[in-house]
Design brief:
Blueprint: H1 8-33, H2 36-40, E1 51-52, H3 54-58, H4 61-65, H5 69-80, E2 83-88, E3 92-97, H6 104-108, E4 114-115, H7 124-127, H8 137-150, H9 153-171, E5 177-181, H10 182-198, H11 201-219, H12 224-228, H13 236-247, H14 253-269, H15 273-289, H16 301-306, H17 309-321, E6 328-332, E7 336-339, E8 345-348, E9 353-356, H18 358-361, H19 385-389, H20 407-424, E10 425-429, E11 436-437, E12 444-445, E13 450-455
Parallel strand pairs: 1-2, 3-9
Antiparallel strand pairs: 2-3, 4-6, 5-13, 6-9, 7-8, 10-13, 11-12
Helix pairs in contact: 9-10, 9-20, 10-11, 10-14, 11-13, 14-17, 14-20, 15-17
């Protein structure tokens, strides 16, 4: 049976079990790598973190039944503080680190101290044994350098013109007015953008439908069941994933998260009139500044998009509230000490799974004022709450040695889409604000996101 979002009971059980499973996997990978002397060390002073046992976890079941993962984590944070260990049956343990003060080692520790372990084994059937976690660490680092080099700002410029062209061509097919599922439309568009940038216009022009179908089959393999049983052919989504991988040799890993962030950005803007108006006004000002309204042609789309500071912080605030990865997990290969904001010190033992719950760290109240509210101005020049909070206060794209190399590319894609939409259409959200589907490893807006549109007086970018 496939795991579905409609089953609250299975959702509660899966979230409880996944912590145990991830810890068990990490312990297996971490212990094999730990030096014998590290394994023998014990934490006498300072003490280990406070432990959340199974009895305490039972009190969280109501929130889990509602599918409210942030509320569950928030309860633990409020009760136990910024460092605590979840113990499953007293055997498997995962230590949670919340906030910038206790996150430095998690994000900056050396590979010999902090490791992914075997936690991402489930991605191997998706992407193949030749890339990512299907290869040894040295090869994976070299592959990472290749991607990082390709996505540096200087090289990113060459992708922006094709992005903008795909955006303009796609929305040119919309009528004067109508109703669309924003989630479906942006998924299609981002497939076109990534296909154009990664495969070329000629390939996508003849293979778009096939690529869309294959990608959906691979994306369907990203579910909780694939974490537990990544190789079994008994799960239908695993079989479809494997067949699609054999035919699709280029996997667009950025599409998954960029689509969701683009939809969340639209849903947030269309339910916050103040920031929607500010973003539209910024578009008008930039267009008039460059004289585009009089028919001039933009020759530097990269610079044009870089001027959109209001739109940038709107996207950034969306990512704070809806991070692509709600939690990042590592394995502690050696024990280490953390010091909390309150001055408490704890020793995290070697072999523990470490978890950084970004969905909570991005909402700590002593860094973010009214953290539950959508307020892009918190990143504006007069507040800059993330900078005031210090390093690792904002970790939607990870941090330290494990920062996402595609951050700038993702911002460019989303800016290219929403700058065009804001300039050229009046939009209205018809659906209720979407709930989060927490049954997916990459949480996404649940269901359709229906939007009505009406064309404005055209303000082109080229």
């Amino acid at each position: 049976m496939e795991f579905t979002s409609s089953s609250a009971m299975w959702l509660a059980m899966a979230i409880l079990a996944i912590t145990a499973a991830l810890t068990k996997i990490a312990l297996g990978g971490g212990r094999r790598r730990c030096l014998s002397e590290s394994s023998d060390l014990t934490c006498k002073t300072p003490p280990p973190p406070p432990v959340v046992n199974c009895i305490a976890l039972l009190g969280l079941l109501p929130a889990l039944f509602r599918g409210d993962v942030p509320a569950t984590m928030q309860q633990l944070y409020a009760k136990f503080g910024s460092v605590f260990t979840v113990s499953v049956a007293g055997l498997l343990k995962a230590t949670f680190l919340v906030g910038p003060e206790v996150s430095a080692h998690f994000f900056q520790g050396l590979e010999s101290e902090v490791s992914h372990g075997d936690l991402f084994e489930f991605t191997v059937p998706m992407f193949g044994k030749e890339v990512g976690h299907g290869v040894d660490n040295a090869t994976r680092i070299e592959q990472g350098r290749f991607f990082a080099e390709a996505l540096k700002p200087a090289r990113l410029r060459i992708h922006v013109d094709p992005m903008v062209q795909e955006v303009e061509d796609y929305f040119a097919k919309w009528g004067q007015h109508g109703t669309v599922d924003l989630k479906h439309e942006l998924e299609q568009l981002l497939l076109l953008i990534s296909g154009r940038c990664l495969l070329g216009k000629e390939v996508m022009g003849t293979k778009f439908d096939e690529v869309c179908n294959l990608f959906r089959d691979i994306e369907g393999g990203v579910n909780l069941m694939s974490v537990f049983f990544p190789y079994t052919p008994l799960i239908p989504s695993n079989r479809r994933r494997d067949m699609a991988r054999e035919r699709l040799h280029a996997i667009f890993s950025d599409i998954h998260t960029s689509t969701h962030t683009s939809v969340w950005t639209g849903a947030r803007l269309l339910t916050h009139e103040k920031f929607l108006a500010a973003a539209v006004d910024e578009q008008d000002q930039i267009v008039r500044k460059h004289g585009i309204i009089n028919g001039r042609i933009v020759t530097d789309h990269y610079g044009f998009l870089m001027e959109m500071h209001m739109l940038h912080i709107c996207i950034k605030e969306t990512l704070r509230l809806h991070p692509p990865a709600p939690m990042i997990v590592r394995t502690a290969l050696r024990q280490f000490t953390v010091r909390t904001r309150e001055g408490h010190e704890y020793c995290v033992p070697a072999g523990h799974t470490m978890a950084s719950p970004i969905v909570i760290s991005n909402r700590v109240p002593y860094i973010y004022k009214d953290a539950h509210l959508y307020d892009p101005d918190r990143f504006g020049p007069r507040r800059e709450e993330d900078k005031v909070g210090g390093k690792f206060s904002y970790t939607s794209f990870g941090g330290g040695r494990n920062s996402c190399v595609g951050e700038n590319y993702a911002y460019m894609q989303i800016k290219a889409i929403w700058s065009h939409l804001l300039r050229n259409f009046e939009l209205k959200l018809l659906s209720p604000f979407p709930k989060t589907d927490w049954s997916k490893l990459v949480p996404e807006p649940q269901g359709k996101v229906m939007v009505s549109y009406k064309r404005r007086q055209l303000l082109p970018t080229s």
